[in-house]
Structures are given as C-alpha cells and as structure tokens.
Amino acid sequence: MTQQGRFITLEGGEGVGKSTNLSFVRDYLHSRGIRVTTTREPGGTPVAERIRALLLANDEQEPLDDLAELLLIFAGRAQHLARVIRPALARGEWVVSDRFTDATFAYQGSARGIAPERIAMLEQFVQQGLAPDLTLWLDMPVSYAADRLAARGGERDRFERERGDFFERVRQGYRARAEQAPERMVAVDASQSLEQVQRDIAQRLDQQLASWN
Ligand code: Z5A
After folding, report:
1. How far, in Å, from the CA of 197 to the mean position of ligand 1?
2. Is 181 inside any structural domain?
3. What pTM was computed for the model?
4. Is 1 a domain residue?
5. What residues make up the domain containing 147?
6. Which of 13, 119, 132, 141 is the most buried (most CB within 10 A)?
7. What gap in Å lies between CA 170 and CA 44, rounded to an integer?
8. Which of 5, 2, 70, 7 shows the shortest CA–CA distance to 42?
9. pLDDT tens for residues 64-103?
C-alpha cells in the first residue's frame, strides 16, 4: 500500500521569500528521495487560479466585500484540495504549498477583522481535518518587505496596496497561530541572508524528517 504523503506549507507576509524558498524545500526533499508536488494559494488549479485573479484584481468600480473575499478563498481551496492536494498525498507524494489556511487566519482574520471562529468553521467544513504537518513561517519586520518588493518591481495587487498597520496585523495573526500550534508551525528569521535562511530551513527539515522516520 502507498504511504500517505506529508503536507508542508510556507507562510508569512508579503516579500518574505516564500516563493524563493519553495523551490529550495522541493530540491531539498528531492535530494532525500522524496517525491514532491509544489503548489500555491490562492490558486493551484486552473479554476482556483481564476479565483486568484479575482482576489488580486484592483477593481475600482466594485470593491470586494470582506466576506465575499473569505468565501472565494475557501472556494479556491476546496478545488485545490480536491484536484491537487488530496490526490498527491494519496499517491504518496509530499505537497509543499506557498500559503494555505494560516494565511486566511492572518489576513482575513487578524488583518480584516473576521472572527477566527467563523474561519475555523469554514476550515472544518472545507478541509475535514486535513491540515499541514509542518509550516515554515518566514517572519521579518514589515518594513523590510518594502525594499525587497521595490527591488523586484512590477505592479502592486489589491493586497499589496493595503496601508496603515494592515501588515502588522497580518504579522500578529501569524504569531498568534504559531503560539497556538508550536509543534507544527515554526518561525524562521527571514530577515537574514538567503543562505542563512536556507541553512535554517534545512536544519528544521532534517529534524522533522528524523522525527517522522
Ligand atoms: N491571501 C489571503 O489574503 N488569504 C489567504 O488565505 C491566502 C492568501 C492563501 C497573494 O499571495 C495574496 O493572497 C497575499 C495574501 C492573500 N497578498 N499579500 N500580501 P502571494 O503569496 O502570491 O503574495 P505575496 O505574499 O505578496 O508573495 P510575494 O510577493 O511573491 O512574496 P514571497 O513569495 O514571500 O517573496 P519572494 O518573491 O520569494 O521574494 C521577494 C523578493 O525578495 C525577491 O526579489 C527575492 O529574490 C528576494 N529575497 C527573498 N529572500 C531574500 C533574503 N533572505 N534576502 C534578500 N532578498 C531576498
């Protein structure tokens, strides 16, 4: 019988290096003979990517309602789980995702102000107990992100245009999640050089692989 795969997520505020380190985690697991599917949220399937486009679009004519935003995120997640995440895990592959439900608690919960109980209700309804086995929370002061994103260039999406203390509240939301689940969710200091961040990630993965084995 095929062994069920493991589910690893990368989380954190904008520009902390999730996409950059997703490929590092994939290559690291490959080097240990593990088959890996990488994916992202919002998105991960063609339909869920169309929902992502709706979520990120700057529509001046019709601002997206916070509750509609939350439901769109979970609609995309349902599709992503059904089409990509559950099938890959069932094939015995490991899934590494750039963001998952911790982001919903941080952005829609802590930053937008939706009650965490409501998000937890949708989490249970949509995921039916499926949750990450390990979450690497890339954490750094919010002010650092501006420099990294300016260096990268490109147009700002609907989230990146948020102002005030929105991203501080996102960071607090992640901190609260990490405090609630310290075994699963580990902080990595993302303000360090990329080499040091990746050494820390590799060390954490080594520990985790040893304990799972
Ligand atoms: N969202 C939500 O509200 N609710 C949800 O449930 C979910 C998502 C799942 C899109 O996500 C938006 O969706 C997101 C929250 C919302 N909006 N925001 N903000 P996304 O993941 O696509 O968006 P993002 O967080 O803005 O991703 P990003 O800008 O691509 O950031 P990143 O992936 O964390 O960073 P990166 O692209 O890997 O790195 C940024 C730059 O920094 C790049 O030039 C790198 O070369 C550089 N970099 C990376 N690491 C380092 C180090 N250590 N030193 C120096 N430079 C570095």
Report:
1. 15
2. yes
3. 0.97
4. no
5. 7-212
6. 13
7. 22
8. 70
9. 999 999 999 999 999 999 999 999 999 999 999 999 999 9
